[in-house]
Write a structure and sequence with these properties.
The protein has 486 residues and is an alpha/beta fold. It has two domains: 10-229 and 380-423, Rossmann fold (3-Layer(aba) Sandwich), CATH 3.40.50; 232-376 and 435-461, Rossmann fold (3-Layer(aba) Sandwich). It is 32% helix and 16% strand. The chain has helices at residues 106-121, 135-138, 169-178, 190-206, 232-251, 269-278, 299-310, 330-336, 344-358, 372-376, 382-400, 420-423, 435-444, 454-461; strands spanning 10-13, 18-22, 36-37, 59-61, 73-78, 84-85, 94-98, 126-129, 142-144, 183-188, 211-216, 256-262, 283-285, 312-318, 365-369, 406-411, 414-419. The strands form three sheets. Strands 1, 2, 4, 5, 7, 8, 9, 10, 11, 16 and 17 form an eleven-stranded mixed sheet that branches. α7 (299-310) links the parallel β13 and β14 (312-318). α1 packs across α11, α3 packs across α4 and α6 crosses α13 (435-444). It catalyses: beta-D-fructose 6-phosphate + ATP = beta-D-fructose 1,6-bisphosphate + ADP + H(+). The active site is at residue 220. One of its GO terms (cellular component) is cytoplasm. Its cofactor is Mg(2+). Residues 94-397 form the Phosphofructokinase domain.
């Protein structure tokens, strides 16, 4: 990787194949920038904690499962407070913006950013940007204080409002410059993080002392590199409620079928983990796993088999599962053409009804449940609240330490500062050749649908192989190319 022509790429190499993919720093382009002692050194809560500050050379390994002959591999700079900071507390003017769709925990992140800046570093000037990126240049900013945000973690949604689109790099940085903002915290998915990267580049081009920090948000858990996105645990927990309802409906009727459509346009993590957690699911369909409807070994045949065995059935379908469906005839191909991903659950439910009414002449009672917007709107649970706090504090520590152009998240359970380009280079996928998917197949007893069709075999051959002894592989390299801005 060449770091000389692009400010995004900072690579430090060491012994035994050690590679640090570093993040930009204000000192990279601002000469003789001043530093100050970290206020936490005299903070009554933190000064008593020994070894609270992170060593300047500490890094987090991207891969922890290695062999005795393995190279040390890629690392990221470890998140946390440094002994020296690059902003005086009274000169900081921070802003927070939320972009994209709703997700449990957004309000918690906002709260902890405001309270963390105020209580840890004595920052009292924090502004909220309303309505996403376009709020930078089309809306008035609102003042945020610990009193204003005190109880917002108990509510779903975002108090700042959100939107998709509206990105105008020049207008955004003009607003940042005109209002004297020097710390920008951007909460959003891969599109928002790509936008944050462009903001950071424009800030650097203008020579502004502005730290840009990203906090990755996606309910689908499909952001690369990081272990897990905030809100995921809450989403899986809420998804189980829908699965439980579908199971009650299904087992209460003769040949009852409960179909639950869950969030997951590109990746099936929510469907997979909710299925494993519930233990009431007979079949789980996700974008990464090829399947087909008709013929021997197809989904319709499996449904008939399960109904004869148990008298009822529960099917979980990820929103984007249509990607995995391999049409067996022209009729199916025609029906799928132009079908939106959010419509696939209803479409396949209708196909099941039509099949058993016309071909097998078998009466069924199918209930379709779509809890998407109910799940998105709930407040985060205890696990996600704790996680959101760590994310917010790590972002604050990084910005105060002068780092910019980074997103923060756990890598192998240690929080790290990750260059924007690493998390926007694609989407994390479920690896269906991995043991986690094998656990799901064992739990549901569904067929893998692999090998029963030449088309399925051809599609499966394109998937990357995963060594069977390396444990859970979350496909952190991504396969879908560079994400578009918003």
């Amino acid at each position: 990787m060449d770091s000389s022509n692009d400010s995004r790429f900072k690579v430090i190499k060491g012994d035994a194949g050690y590679v640090l993919e570093d993040v930009p720093h204000l000192s990279d382009y601002i000469a003789d920038i001043s530093t100050y002692p970290n206020p936490l050194q005299s903070h009554p809560a933190y000064s008593v904690v020994k070894q609270y500050f992170v060593n300047v050379d500490a890094s987090v390994a991207q891969t922890v499962v290695v062999h005795k002959s393995s190279q040390r591999g890629i690392h990221f700079r470890r998140a946390g407070p440094r002994q020296r900071v690059y902003f005086k507390s009274d000169e900081v003017r921070a802003c927070i913006v939320t972009c994209g769709g709703l997700c449990p925990g957004v309000n918690t992140v906002i709260r902890e950013l405001v309270c963390g800046l105020y209580h840890m570093y004595g920052v009292s000037k924090v502004l909220g940007i309303e309505g996403g990126y376009k709020g930078f240049y089309s809306r008035d900013f609102i003042d945020l204080s610990p009193k204003v945000v005190n109880n917002i973690h108990k509510r779903g949604g975002t108090i700042l409002g959100t939107s998709r689109g509206g990105y105008d790099n020049k207008k955004i940085v003009d607003s940042i410059q005109d209002r004297g903002i020097n710390q920008v915290y951007i909460i959003g998915g891969d599109g928002a993080q790509k936008g944050a990267e462009l903001v950071c580049e424009e800030v650097r081009r203008r020579g502004l002392k502005v730290a840009v920090a990203g906090i990755p948000k996606t309910i689908d858990n499909d952001i690369l590199v990081i272990d897990k996105s905030f809100g995921f645990d809450t989403t899986v927990e809420e998804a189980q409620r829908a699965i439980k309802a579908a199971h009650v409906e299904a087992e209460s009727f003769c040949n009852g079928i409960g179909v639950v459509k869950l969030i997951g346009r590109h990746s099936g993590f929510i469907a997979m983990y909710a299925t494993l957690a519930s233990r009431d699911v007979d079949c789980c369909l996700i974008p990464e796993s090829p399947f087909f409807l008709e013929g021997k070994g197809g989904l319709l045949e499996y449904i008939k088999k399960r109904l004869k065995e148990n008298g009822h059935m529960v099917i979980v379908i990820a929103e984007g599962a249509a990607v995995g469906l391999i049409p067996q005839n022209q009729k199916t191909r025609n029906q799928l053409e132009g079908l939106e991903s959010k419509e696939f659950g209803l479409w396949i439910s209708q196909r099941i009804k039509d099949h058993f009414a016309t071909e097998d002449m078998m009466p069924i009672n199918l209930k379709f449940i779509d809890p998407t917007y109910m799940i998105r709107a709930v407040p985060s649970n205890a696990s996600d609240n704790n996680y959101c706090t760590l994310l917010a504090h790590s972002a604050i520590h990084g910005a105060m330490a002068g780092y910019s152009g980074f997103t923060v998240g756990p890598v192998n359970a240690r929080h790290a500062y990750i260059p924007f380009h690493r998390v926007t280079a694609g989407r994390k996928k479920v690896v269906v050749t991995d043991r986690m998917w094998a656990r799901l197949l064992s739990s549901t007893n569904q067929p893998s649908f692999l090998g029963s069709s030449r088309d399925v075999e051809d599609k499966n051959e394109k998937e990357p192989s995963t060594p069977s002894l390396d444990g859970e592989n979350y496909n952190k390299t991504g396969t879908n190319g560079v994400a578009a801005v918003l």
